[in-house]
Amino acid sequence: MAGKHRFVACALLSEILIFSVPVSAVDNDGLDDEPNQQSDIEPLDVEDTVRRAFFEDTSLVLKPRTYYLSRDRETDPDSVGWALGGALEYKSGWWRDSLRLAATAYTSQKLYGPSDKDGTLLFKPGPEGFTALGELNLTYRFSDDHGIRIGRQRFELPYLGSHDIRMVPNTFQGVAIGNVSPEGLGYMAGYVDKIKRKNDDDFISMSQAAGAENSDEGVYFAGVRYRFADGPLVGGIFQRTEEVFDTLFLKAEGPLYQFDTYQLNGYLQYTDQSSTGDALIGDFDTSLLSAKLELAAGPVSWRIAYSTTDDSFGIQKPYGNPANYLSVIVDDFDRAGEDAWLIGASYDFGRVDVGQLSAFANIVRGDTPDAGSNASPDETEYDITVDFRGQRDWAERLWVRVRAAYVDQDEALGGNDFLDFRIIVNYDFTLF
């Protein structure tokens, strides 16, 4: 089955490259931001438009966040929590135009969270508030757009990233080399030793985070991305967790056709995973193929998507950033043998007082085997997200997000229906 997915992926990637036409890609200014679909292959950010001295360009930014999450389950215990915290971000200027120091402290403190309703991932288990120095790194720029970064840092790569869906993101300890590339060829490579997960204040080894107890292995990775001047992009990245598993990810995205005010965009991505070395979390070989079409027309866009996962094993994503166009608020729809469909729509309401109002909704249906070792409940997830982004006056850096998801699972295989509701408020203060 995995071999069949590999063949289909290569054929579809080739067709997107051949039939992409030279029109600009749609820019929605961050609208429809779905953090569960983080599949960008981003090179290392080492360049500033304005370069100043170490102290002159030093910045300190306070980024408060409050987050309320309630999960009301039909049979299992409910989960509920309300947190206050955020981040304090320091960044120096470039010393001798070559060195930059950066650090970020994160905190999540409990405003409300009964012990019998734990499990929101807003806090440490307990629930218990926490504070962590999640980032502390040094970047050395050895040319205008190439550099190397060492220390605690964030990554935004497929299956290796911050997955910033709670109060505090995943952060990592490692070294990375890369370049700045808005267009043309971008690259990134490196080694990650440890991860601090989103609901913890300790860094642990990557292999331990993947489920290999009493191990101390890291992750090697290398990726490239090429963005054409007229919109389309292609890319791929390979990751290896020594003695645990490998991940290969490929993607191709771009405009397919434009007529009048309508534009059709195509998206395709493929994941291949297999155990390696001592196979510390088990011997497996699996794959995921995901495709999406999106039609944009002024303030409205419509989308359909499909994904299929090999029936031998589900996709492993212990380091964040699941990469599937059907990953939505609650579920990723990448279980063993799962075939899933998505239909969705977005609408930009435009200016509302001091900001911009937009909304998007998705319905995803996932079918899995009804019998055998990989049997699991079929399910349907109904999602809606409403965003208000401040754009002027006191609200210029305000972002309010309200999200709701209802998950309907097949009770015949032990499914459990539930309602997930979230309110997230973000703000930025530049202290200096």
UniProtKB/TrEMBL annotation:
One of its GO terms (cellular component) is membrane. Gene3D superfamilies: Porin. The keyword Cell membrane does not apply. Keywords: Signal, Transport. Residues 1-25 form the signal peptide. SUPFAM superfamilies: Porins (SSF56935). Transmembrane segments: none annotated. The keyword Manganese does not apply. InterPro entries: OM_porin_bac, Porin_dom_sf. GO terms for molecular function: porin activity. Belongs to the outer membrane porin (Opr) (TC 1.B.25) family. This is OprD family porin. It comes from Salinimonas iocasae. The lineage of its organism: Bacteria, Pseudomonadati, Pseudomonadota, Gammaproteobacteria, Alteromonadales.
